[in-house]
Amino acid sequence: MVGLGCVLAGLGIVAWIVWQLWISTWLSHRHQAEIVGDLRQGWSQGQQEVRVDVGTGIGILRVPRFGAGYEVPVLAGTSADVLAAGVGHEDGTALPGERGNMVLAGHVITHGEPFRHLKDLRVGDEVDLQTARGTYHYVIDTPGDALTVDFSAGWVLDPRPVNPTGGVAPGDDPRLLTLLTCAELFHTDLRTVVFGHQTGFDPAR
User: Fold this and answer.
1) In this structure, which of 1, 109, 127, 205 has its CB flanked by the most CB atoms within 10 Å?
2) Confidence category of residue 26, pLDDT binned at 50, 70, 90
3) Is the pLDDT assigned to residue 16 strictly greater than 50?
4) Across 29-33, 66-70, 93-97, least confident range
């Protein structure tokens, strides 16, 4: 009986890993695609703010470095439901086009893993955020593997982030972009941080 219990426990662990690493990601990709479709439909109908099943949609994120087909919804807040459905916009930080620091957070693994390759970003890489108003263009200023901080490092959310250690920090542009994810594939209190800034805006037609 002890042996059977060990086998069942092992199977349960395997099933949990399969769910976390593959099934949840597959389901999240489908959900993300549905939300992207909802956003486009809402914008085509003149809606400036589109409500979806997990909250308010802000835009559609595209990062060429992550592949030609990469597009993920950006949603208001960073609740568990939001981060399972796309990339979350940190409450209290700048919105697209606003002066200040727009902070976006996403999973590095599971739930669609939208920031799985955040550490692959290079200086000069482009990031686009399509919204109801138009598309905002950003460029990456710091390498994806250059800055790791503790999850409690609130300075990265500041309107004008200043690294207290004197290390990697954003430039002086008035409209900043900050991308956040876990620094490791599994549970960790460390966060990978990438900085960029807005370079342009194309109004919606």
Assistant:
1) 127
2) low
3) no
4) 29-33
Contacts of 89-96 with CB under 8 Å at 24 or more apart are 89/58, 90/157, 90/180, 92/157, 93/157, 93/159, 93/178, 94/159, 94/175, 94/176, 95/58, 96/58, 96/59, 96/129, 96/131, 96/133, 96/136
Query: Does 4 have pLDDT greater than 70?
Result: no
**55, 72, 94, 97, 131 from 44: Cα distances, Å:** 19, 18, 25, 21, 11
Dist. CA 67–CA 86, nearest whole Å: 16
Backbone angles phi and psi of 85, in degrees to 5: -110, 0
DSSP code, position 115: T
3-state DSSP assignment of residue 88: strand
CB 142 within 8 A of CB 135: no
